[in-house]
Amino acid sequence: MLFEVAGIEVQPWVPPLVSLIISFFTSMGGVSGAFLLLPFQMSVLGYVNPSVSSTNQFYNIVAIPSGVWRFIREGRMVWPLTWVVIVGTLPGVFIGAFLRVQYLPDARNFKLFVAAVLLYIGVRMVRDLIKQMKGQAGGAKAAEQRFQEQVARFREQAKAKEAHGEKLAAVRVVRFTSTRIAYEFYGETYDVSTWGILSLSFVVGIVGGTYGIGGGAIIAPFFVSVFGLPVYTVAGAALMGTFITSVAGVAFYQFIAPFYPNMSVAPDWMLGLLFGLGGMAGMYLGARCQKYVPARYIKWMLSSLLVFLAIKYVTDALR
Q: What ranges in the chain are assigned the alpha helix state H?
């Protein structure tokens, strides 16, 4: 099948299959998988035009709602965190899209930028995993062990509540002001700075808008490692924020396309749709299976792949 905007030819079953596999694993950590899908498009399919960024964001628009719906249904959406992420990320997305078209249209320069982003994410994930192995992250107990203990306590409380006709929500917002966001999750309270989240989101929006990933791959690890939030609560917020910013990113790329008539800027709608349909199924399954899969295994696999891809792009660009 020929995709004219992308300038590539590929079997129509390949994009949805690849995105299903990628998104199944990445969605468990609050990431849509777009950060791995873009290297696949560039290295395997040979899609290196600037429109690959907008196509990648269109994938997010199609794929993410199923995962977000699952998190909402299970009561794991922290809405104050989600809204702050969206408000902070949106301006950055527009700046990033402009930088992509204006300063990084060349495939070689863009690969170097992609390599820097991937290497940063990969190295940070490896560092956090090593800390966890040494027992330094989050105190004496690993975050995942604490989560399982919290779940057990919650279920006991839930049985008592339901016996009296009450329901106990998994996430309960305690405070949401211009300075602090606090919420309770399975009996434990988490408190973060609103301005800290806002500032981080703005920077992530710029990088995500340039790369075409929406920013979830960057912001989710920050929430876990810097702000100390459990991955089981940040996943929904990161995915929802990525969805909204991707809508804005695709609209902006489409808007500026006429100003660059000699450059492929607008998304390849059909290719993005095929990727998105596979991602939709993968994210729903990933969100549903998240609590059954040890997060460290997924993180090791992803971090190793990220570092490998980053090194490969650097060597390709310097040839």
A: 14-26, 34-39, 51-73, 79-103, 107-133, 143-163, 194-211, 216-225, 231-256, 269-289, 295-318
pLDDT digits (tens, 9 = 90+) for 170-223: 688 899 999 999 998 877 789 999 999 999 899 888 887 887 776 766 787 778
Report CA-CA distances (Å) from 212 to 19, 78, 86, 217, 227.
15, 24, 16, 11, 25
Residue 211 contacts residue 28 (beta carbons within 8 Å): no
Q: What pTM was estimated for this model as a whole?
A: 0.75
Residue recorded with tokens 């035009």: 49
Dihedral angle, C-alpha 64, 69, 74, 78, nearest 10 °: 70
Neighbours of 155 (CB within 10 A): 11
Give the residue among 213, 217, 243 at the shortest CA–CA distance from 63. Answer: 243
CB-based contact 295:144 (threshold 8 Å): yes
Q: What percent of the chain has pLDDT over 70?
A: 82
| Contact criterion met (CB below 8 Å) for 69 and 63 | no
Beta bridge partners of 180: 193
Q: Any idea what the Cα angle at residue 120 is, between residues 291 and 132, rounded to 5°?
A: 45
Residues of the chain with pLDDT > 90, as a percent, come to 18
- Measure the CA–CA gap between 272 and 264, rounded to whole angstroms: 15
Model confidence pLDDT, tens digit, residues 144-165: 566 566 666 666 766 665 555 5
- Residue 98 Cα to chain centre, angstroms: 21
With CA atoms as reference, report the closest residue to 245 among 15, 83, 69: 83
254-283 tens-digit pLDDT: 999 898 888 888 999 999 999 999 988 888
